[in-house]
Design brief:
This protein is of the alpha+beta class. Helix content is 45%, strand content 17%. Helix 1 packs parallel to helix 5 (265-295), helix 1 (118-144) packs antiparallel against helix 6 (321-347) and helix 5 (265-295) packs antiparallel against helix 6 (321-347). The radius of gyration is 28 Å and the shape is elongated.
């Protein structure tokens, strides 16, 4: 911080509120000799114990600091401890917020206290883990691993079913927790753009999917095929919309995911993970076709068709257990790495340069 133009909204020792021009020669603040330099229509007042200030600014020059509003600047909003005839005291590191990037002063910019920005970070982290890792793994397991490790029955349940239920229950739980956090942060619902709108759709589908799964019919009843299609349709729709929401988070100013050297880093990681997910489905579909052929299955081409995969008509272990085990481990490793990378970006602290951005 240094060589910055500053506007101060303060209350002096007599209790009078005012808007004045200050500047930062270096790591300290001084009041300008012309307190109205570059300022117009200043209004300062105290209402119900709160200080309110409005003002307009023109291009101005302070001690060779040229401020021209056709250019873009970083904005810093802070709360100083006190005001004296000489200038403003230094603000606390927690009592400030900096615009994520340089902005044009004519734009509508909202800056506010960010003491509970951790709620946004937790929301983002939980949703990434829920939909990129847990949901993806649960659906991948249910589609390709029903005839893998059939002799392993955790808690008396088939291996694939136990892993699927765990992943999908975790998805629903993390989604609900993430939703509660962002509602607390926003103090309600704000459906102003596609991210929160689609987010509400995802939450609704996740809850509906759990409710349907709790009342699933027995595998041998006439209603089971209908349940399979409904369960598959809702699950895949929720997964796709959830992934789209994670993509859309990149453009949210509150998330501030463009502050890294490569502004598109978030998108590159997402595209890499999604591409890997698709390639793994292709590989496992080909493997399923091969395994069904080896078993002389009654549904040899079931892996080619969209929708819930039909049973192969057998209950034995399918050929290629070692390959499928390796592919599942690889899938978990890469998807977890991608989710962790995104969570790290969500929680990555701002650099010194960003924290001490110049003000206008």
């Amino acid at each position: 911080m240094g060589e910055d133009s500053v506007v101060g909204c303060a209350v002096d020792s007599s209790g009078q509120a005012s808007v004045k021009r200050y500047y930062n020669p270096a790591q300290y603040n001084e009041i300008h000799s012309n307190v109205g330099e570059g300022l117009q229509n200043q209004i300062a007042k105290i209402e119900e114990g709160h200080l309110f200030c409005t003002f307009e600014q023109d291009d101005h020059e302070i001690n060779k600091i040229h401020v021209q509003f056709q250019k873009s600047y970083y904005l810093l909003l802070s709360r100083a401890g006190s005001v004296s005839p000489d200038g403003l005291s230094q603000h606390d590191t927690q009592d400030k917020v900096v615009s994520p990037q340089a902005v044009h002063i004519s734009e509508n910019i909202i800056l506010g206290a960010s003491a509970n920005n951790w709620l946004v970070q937790l929301h983002g982290g939980l949703m990434v883990i829920a939909w990129l890792l847990c949901a993806s793994t649960g659906m991948f397991t249910a589609r390709y691993f029903k005839h893998t490790h059939t002799d392993f029955m955790p808690l008396g349940k088939a291996f694939w079913f136990a892993l699927h239920v765990f992943c999908m229950a975790a998805t629903a739980f993390l989604t609900i927790c993430g939703a509660i956090l962002i509602i607390i942060k926003k103090k309600g619902f704000e459906l102003k753009d596609w991210h929160p709108i689609l987010g509400c759709v995802v939450i609704g589908l996740a809850i509906l999917q759990v409710a349907i799964a709790l009342f699933r019919p027995h595998p041998n009843t006439p209603m089971r095929p209908i349940f399979n299609w409904v369960h598959w349709g809702i699950g895949n729709t929720a997964h796709i919309v959830g992934i789209v929401c994670i993509f859309l988070a990149w453009d949210l100013s509150l998330a501030d995911l463009k502050r890294f050297g490569d502004e598109s880093l978030w998108l590159w990681i997402m595209m890499a993970v999604v591409l890997f997910h698709v390639l793994m489905h292709i590989v496992m579909s080909i493997h399923t076709l091969w395994a069904d052929k080896q078993l002389d299955s009654s549904n040899k081409k079931r892996a080619l068709f969209p929708g819930p995969m039909k049973p192969n008509g057998m209950s034995d272990e399918a050929p290629g257990t070692g390959f499928r085990t390796f592919m599942l481990a690889l899938y978990l490793l890469v998807m977890a790495a991608g989710a962790i990378a995104l969570v790290v970006l969500v929680f990555w602290p701002k650099s010194t340069k960003e924290e001490e951005a110049p003000t206008s």
